[in-house]
Known about the structure:
The chain has 237 residues and is an all-alpha fold. Helix content is 74%, strand content 0%. It has helices spanning 3-11, 14-19, 22-28, 34-57, 62-94, 100-130, 139-166, 169-172, 179-200, 224-235.
Amino acid sequence: MNPIRSLSTSLFPWPSLARGDKNFLADWIAEDTVQQRLAFCLASIFIGGGCYGAAIGAWHSLEMAAYVAIKLPLIIVVTFGLNGLINGMIATLVGADLSLRQTWLSILSAFSIFSLVLLSLSPVTLYFTLNLPGPDAPPPAAAKAHQLLLIGHVIVLGLSGIAAMQRLWRLLISKTERPFFLIALWIFSNGFVGAQIAYLFRPIFGTPGLKIAFLRPDAFDGNFYESLLWAMEHCLK
């Protein structure tokens, strides 16, 4: 490999990581490089997730944008931490040739790609967010905008997560005979846990008529899926 290109890849590995290059990923999850990879992945998560979070929260106010810029990366990190053992168990059950540490690095890499996808979508997200009726609009319009934000961003986040996890495909086909099954289980597991963690960290958009807060005092009341079904039901009326 060209020395300049090699140095560029080692310092700025985002393109190779996002492409899901098999050889790059195999080296990327090597167990003797854990600390370097961890630092890089966390930086990617906080930059990408922070920018997208700010774009979401800007619908309500600059204060909410700052809150969500902090909370969205934390949601990703907490999801990774809580779901790490489950992901490892899934890999073992599927018969993947991955150690627990390699599994964690694989998932963390996928979360990094996910955050980079969100970073790329942040300008467009901000544009549409600021062109919706704001929380100070008449109640019907504000409520409808809030519901559209919830449904729309659930779709965007879900598709971004699937795209990010799919980048591991080339690596996993050499590690297990059932890569599709493994990726599908990882997507379901991380999506299920992540959605509920995001619900606990609400408000994400800021509900019209309610004061701005970093966390809700009733965080453990209800669940994400009830909230999503409620938004879909009222959005269609």
